[in-house]
Amino acid sequence: MADDTADVPADDAALNAALAAEHAAIWGYGVVGAALGAGQAAVLAAEIAHRDVRDRVTTLLADRGTEPVPPEGGYALPFPVLSAVDAAALAVVLEEGVSAAWVRVLDRTAERSTRELAAEVLGAAEVRAVGWRAAAAQNPTTRAFPGL
């Protein structure tokens, strides 16, 4: 595949990377929901939140004249998801991946509205990650600098 990012401004490239992370999170929450059993409301809320962000970023990129990255057909899981604890741990990985992508957006843009969006999404991802870390019995449950 050719590198189509050569002519894309750095902030749009970072937004597209964040969009790719949102696509992966949406797909991953399907796996989390299938394996979790209980706690479906949290899975549904997280998936809806990521779909909302996906839609906002897709519109933002299209308005800027940048082609939004499409979702992949599937994504490799970082580990087998065989239990509710594994499902919660996967949700942590998804939220941390989204957080890392949005930190890059913060690093690469000076536009106030884009920075506000990045900060909003980063904070929401960390709040969800705290709940999932607790469900996966991970300590500490909070991160001082999410996404770093």
UniProtKB/TrEMBL annotation:
Source organism: Blastococcus saxobsidens
SUPFAM superfamilies: Ferritin-like
The protein, known as: DUF4439 domain-containing protein
Pfam families per record: DUF4439
Domain DUF4439: 14-148
Gene3D superfamilies in the record: 1.20.1260.10
